[in-house]
Design goal:
The complex is a heterotrimer of chains A (about 425), B (about 290) and C (about 325). Chain A is α+β, with helices and mostly antiparallel strands and about 425 residues long. Chain A has 2 domains: about 5-225, P-loop containing nucleotide triphosphate hydrolases (Rossmann fold, 3-Layer(aba) Sandwich); about 240-385, OB fold (Dihydrolipoamide Acetyltransferase, E2P). Chain A has helices at about 45-50, 95-105, 110-125, 140-150, 170-185, 195-205, 220-225, 230-235, 265-270, 325-335, 385-419; strands at about 5-10, 20-25, 30-35, 60-65, 65, 80, 155-160, 190-195, 205-210, 215-220, 245-250, 255, 260, 275-280, 285-290, 300-305, 305-310, 315-320, 345-350, 360-365, 375. In chain A, strand 7 (about 155-160), helix 5 (about 170-185) and strand 8 (about 190-195) form a beta-alpha-beta unit. The radius of gyration of chain A is 24 Å and the shape is elongated. In chain B, strands 1-2 form a two-stranded antiparallel ribbon. In chain B, helix 4 (about 70-105) runs antiparallel to helix 9 (about 190-215) and helix 5 packs across helix 7 (about 150-170). Chain C folds into 2 domains: about 1-55, no CATH class; about 75-315, MetI-like fold (Orthogonal Bundle), CATH 1.10.3720. Chain C has a two-stranded antiparallel sheet. In chain C, about 45% of the residues are buried. The chains are: A alpha+beta (about 425), B mainly alpha (about 290), C mainly alpha (about 325). At the B-C interface, helix 1, helix 4, helix 5, helix 6 and helix 7 of B face helix 2, helix 4, helix 5, helix 6 and helix 7 of C. Chain A: This is Maltodextrin import ATP-binding protein msmX. Chain A: It is an enzyme of class 3 (hydrolase).
């Protein structure tokens, strides 16, 4: 069990380009932290620096308060699951899992090794595959063997490098819950790298969002979703992604492509002097006014729906719009940063499944302006972020995490006592 | 691939493969047939069947001649020379090339490209161009007609080849395998011994076979840099004389040819799949 | 020697290197160095020495008479009709064997690629000639064609219903000798060619061929417009390797004719000058000329046909 601290970590490659730039992160004992970002954001590099496969150019890496920058990977007592699992093809499943134990010569008796491997294989339901070679296993089974190898090591922390990216969608969902359950059960500090924001949101106690080697925001999934610090985080978290609309400012009114919103409070001060701002609206916060009840201060507007997708439990509507030239470049840049395809801008609305809107209809839509985010088009900063609320969410999440960990430990102890 | 081949095409391909196999096999059977002919049958077509191809009466006289008879003092030492020289040069070059290829595939250091390019360029050298200076030099420093005098040029033959094939093999081993071992708590040496070595063993083995075969096949160096004390089989074959001065040594040569060919053919056939991948991986983009 | 190389390796870098990166470089050269140095010693040194010796008039039997003659050896060689005769012979062998091997090798590769039965047997048998020692294959073809011991004349006699002369001497003339030399060479090396081509064929995506089939391409069009362009790399490498091998041909003609009837090749001429006539200076000059011919061919292929030889093994 251990605490991992990253202090001003920098990674520069031969050409001087910083792949990771000044990242500081404090990971508490037993915490599940996700490193997330689009491809090339430096998340894997950061993980590989923690495990010791990559040199740290500057900054300090501390495990349980001890600086480990110069320690070899094997001396850091960490376990890692690789993206392609890195199973040893010449060894059976049993020997693959036993591999780390056998390396510690003389420390474990044959009997002990067998017990530990069986314990891990039991937990991962691999018992009937122990004599097989990795090449005969399915993707999910290989993934579990890789986890088994990590478990027996009784490491101080688990590191995962995009462990689910080679699995199909259904299996990915199953393994995701499996990893979450295992982490809680073992109560082990975990760092998990992914580019998939769904994995980030569902697994993490806290999520660190990276962009081009720079840490954008570290927060609980809920805080990231409700109180993102900037355009990038707001656009990255949530599926379908947040809509970004250009809005002209005139006094306390924002002119959106389809609607007008009156703003109040200190937001008026913040947007003062700006010609345009970017308004962020989550698809699920826009409602079909004809079938759903909306708050009385809701902003109503009508728009022609270009395309709809009915999924049974929900429905998406797509409404194209023309971005203001003043913010067009900014939005294009954001699109590129988020690995977008550079499509024509469109408003995505997540409608209730009961809604009868079909393509070509002029839909009657509404949203609650309190749920709207306003971003500075130059810096990308979120002008509507409420720090007090954010702090409250952080506190609640931390309390919840402790409770869950406590409960898992108790349950484990009870199970141990019964057995 | 097989699924979209129609029955008609299948049959035609099967038929087409017959002449290929016959064309390949005839010279081989011919060597065997000649080695089994008696001295009299060699020059007399009436004692053979199938148009002077196969002997009516097979005899092992030729084999006796090269092992215990008149040609034995030429063939038996040559066989030993071949085995010693080829084994030693193979072992040396494979060991050196294994380290070299491991470094090329695994480590980041300047000059990797230079090594590979040099290896390739060297294998294009006309060996005969090396013979002239070596002949002169060996005579001066006393390496002419010695086993080391043959082992050294054989390194020139086998090293580039081994470096090239082994680099290709090492590059096929996933890099993460070794990193995983390190994270699992292995030292560099443990990672090499427990993970990389078992995975690379087939590649090293294949390279050894190819290198051994290249040395075994050499005629240029052996015929020009040796006379009696280090002559290998291919060169010895060329210097065979018959039982008497006026008799052609045809049968003895063929018997010796069969003897030196059989082990190599067996080796190549046993490991054919690996050898094919070894031969092609270095040359063709894999 | 190795530490020298390591030193030059590290001084060339500009950026500050971490200890591990520096250690990696040192280790890299420590591991790769010995093989590299030995390779250079046993190959580059003789070549350099040959270039040096080629500038002298030097007979081994008369070391005292060694005299610096600059390029006179080259001049003598290049104006000597014997040189041009061996050059022509070598050239003929290269072109003939290459054309036949390419066509045959391609045909065999295509059969091997698609054949269902006898797939394994075919792939195995085709490898055998490759594993035969060149000298042995030379003898096999020599004995097969010789009047006294051979079966060629007998078989041809049967196939031509008696028209073929049973006493035909294959090694009595230049062209018939070259025919047997080429046949032997083709037999021995076509397997290697077809293996390289098979590896290239295996890389051609079969769905591409199917798409061409759907697009209405005939068999020949599919072969010419889809398969060949997509295996160009393998084709070029195979042709280059074979050309360079064929230019250096020595064993086969040495065994069969010993150079009689104008069948001497360049390599044989080099050996003849050096070993039999102990004209070290002239032999070296010829060796250098041969080396330059090989270099030119390699250069033409790598530049002219854009053969990327390092592509297969370039780092990650």
């Amino acid at each position: 069990m251990s605490r991992i601290e990253l202090k001003n970590i920098v990674k520069k490659y031969g050409d001087g380009f910083p792949a990771v730039n000044d990242v500081s992160l404090d990971i508490a004992d037993g915490e599940f932290v996700i490193l997330v970002g689009p491809s090339g954001c430096g998340k894997s590099t950061l993980l590989r620096m923690v495990v010791g496969l990559e040199d740290i150019t500057s900054g300090d890496l501390l495990i349980d308060g001890k600086r480990v920058n110069d320690l070899a990977p094997r001396d850091r007592h960490l376990a890692m699951v690789f993206q392609n699992y890195a199973l040893y093809p010449h060894l059976t499943v049993f020997e693959n899992i036993a591999f780390p134990l056998r390396l510690q010569k003389g420390k474990h008796s044959e009997e002990e090794i067998r017990r530990m491997v069986h314990q891990a294989s039991g937990m991962l339901e691999l018992d009937e595959h122990l004599d097989r070679k990795p090449s005969n296993l399915s993707g999910g089974q290989r993934q579990r063997v890789a986890m088994g190898r990590a478990i027996v090591r009784e490491a101080d922390a688990f590191l995962f490098d995009e462990p689910l990216s080679n699995l199909d969608a259904k299996l990915r969902g199953q393994m995701r819950t499996e990893i979450a359950r295992m982490q809680r059960r073992l109560g082990i500090t975990t760092i998990y790298v992914t580019h998939d924001q769904v994995e980030a949101m569902t697994l993490g106690d806290r999520v660190a969002v990276l962009k081009k080697g720079i840490l954008q925001q570290v927060a609980s999934p809920r805080e990231l979703y409700e109180q993102p610090v900037n355009l990038f985080v707001a656009g990255f978290i949530g599926s379908p992604p947040m809509n970004f609309l250009p809005a002209r400012v005139s006094g306390s009114t924002l002119h959106l492509p389809h609607a007008e919103v009156t703003i109040t409070g200190d937001l008026v001060e913040k947007v003062k002097g700006k010609d345009v701002v970017i308004v962020g609206l989550r698809p699920e916060h826009i409602k079909d006014a004809t079938v759903e009840t909306t708050p009385e201060h809701a902003v109503h507007f009508t728009a022609v729906v270009d395309q709809t997708e009915w999924l049974g439990n929900e429905q998406y509507a797509y409404i194209p719009f023309d971005a203001d030239r003043a913010v067009r470049d900014k939005l294009d840049e954001l699109d590129r940063e988020l690995d977008g395809e550079g499509m024509h801008p469109q408003l995505i609305v997540n409608l209730d499944a009961r809604s009868r809107v079909i393509e070509g209809d002029e839909a009657d839509l509404a949203f609650d302006p309190a749920l709207m985010h306003v971003f500075d088009p130059e810096s990308g900063d979120n002008l509507t972020r409420d720090d007090e609320k954010a702090a409250q969410i952080a506190k609640d999440s931390e309390a919840q995490r402790r409770m869950a960990l406590e409960r898992a430990k108790k349950r484990e102890a009870a199970k141990g006592g019964a057995a | 691939m097989e699924t979209n081949v129609s029955d008609k095409v299948k049959t035609w391909l099967g038929v087409a493969s017959i002449p290929i196999m016959v064309w390949t096999a005839i010279p081989l059977l011919w060597i065997l047939a000649t080695s089994l002919k008696s001295t009299a049958a060699l020059a007399d077509s009436t004692q053979n069947i199938l148009g002077n191809f196969w002997p009516k009466h097979m005899t092992l006289d030729n084999y006796r001649l090269i092992f215990t008879g008149g040609a034995s003092d030429l063939f038996v030492p040559a066989l030993w020379h071949s085995i010693v020289v080829c084994l030693v040069s193979t072992v040396i070059s494979v060991i050196l090339a294994t380290f070299c290829a491991y470094a090329i595939a695994r480590l980041d250091f300047p000059g990797k490209g230079v090594i590979l390019t040099t290896a390739l360029a060297v294998s294009f050298f006309p060996v005969i161009a090396m013979v002239t200076p070596l002949f002169n030099l060996w005579r001066q420093i006393g390496l002419f007609d010695t086993l080391p005098g043959l082992i050294i040029p054989y390194l020139a033959l086998t090293l580039p080849l081994s470096i090239w094939t082994l680099s290709a093999f090492f590059q096929q081993i996933p890099w993460e395998m070794e990193q995983a071992a390190q994270v699992d708590g292995a030292t560099s040496w443990q990672a090499f011994r427990k993970v990389i070595a078992p995975l690379a063993a087939p590649g090293v083995f294949t390279t050894a076979i190819i290198a051994f075969f290249t040395a075994w096949n050499d005629f240029v160096f052996s015929s020009n840099l040796t006379s009696e004390n280090a002559r290998t089989v291919p060169a010895a074959l060329a210097y065979f004389t018959g039982a008497s001065q006026f008799e052609q040594p045809t049968g003895a040569i063929c018997a010796a040819a069969v003897i030196v060919t059989i082990p190599v053919v067996i080796l190549v056939l046993l490991f054919q799949r690996r050898i094919v991948s070894g031969l092609t991986s270095g040359a063709v983009k894999g | 020697m190795t530490t020298d190389s390591a030193a030059t390796g590290t001084t060339r870098t500009k950026a500050r290197l971490s200890d591990r990166a520096r250690g990696e470089r040192a280790l890299g050269w420590r591991l790769a160095g010995p093989a590299f140095v030995i390779m250079l010693l046993v190959t580059l040194y003789p070549i350099a020495y040959a270039v040096y010796l080629s500038l002298f008039n030097y007979r081994l039997t008369d070391p005292a008479g060694r005299k610096f003659v600059f390029l006179r050896n080259y001049l003598t060689a290049l104006t000597d009709p014997l040189f041009w005769q061996t050059f022509t012979t070598t050239f003929i062998i290269v072109v003939v064997t290459l054309v036949f091997e390419l066509v045959l090798g391609m045909a065999i590769a295509m059969v091997m690629n698609k054949v269902v039965w006898p797939r394994k047997t075919l792939r195995t048998i085709v490898l055998i000639p490759y594993s035969i020692i060149t000298v042995v294959s030379g003898f096999a073809w020599l004995f097969a064609a010789q009047v006294s011991t051979g079966f060629f004349n007998h078989w041809l006699h049967v196939f031509t219903f008696g028209a073929w002369n049973l006493e035909y001497d294959w090694f009595g003339g230049r062209w018939s000798s070259l025919t047997i030399i080429c046949l032997s060479e083709i037999w021995k090396t076509t397997p290697f060619m077809s293996l390289l081509l098979l590896a290239g064929l295996a890389q051609v995506d079969s769905s591409m061929e199917e798409a061409a089939k759907v697009d209405g391409a005939t068999w020949w069009q599919r072969f010419y417009k889809v398969i060949l362009p997509n295996m160009k790399a393998a084709l070029m490498v195979a042709v280059l390797f074979r050309t360079l091998d064929a230019v250096r041909i020595y064993d086969n003609p040495y065994i069969m004719t010993g150079g009689a009837n104008k069948t001497m090749t360049l390599s044989m001429l080099v050996a003849n000058e050096t070993i039999n006539r102990v004209e070290i200076g002239m032999g070296s000059a010829l060796a250098v000329i041969l080396f330059i011919i090989v270099l030119i061919i390699a250069f033409i292929f790598v530049r002219g046909f854009k053969v990327d030889l390092t592509g297969g093994t370039r780092g990650r």
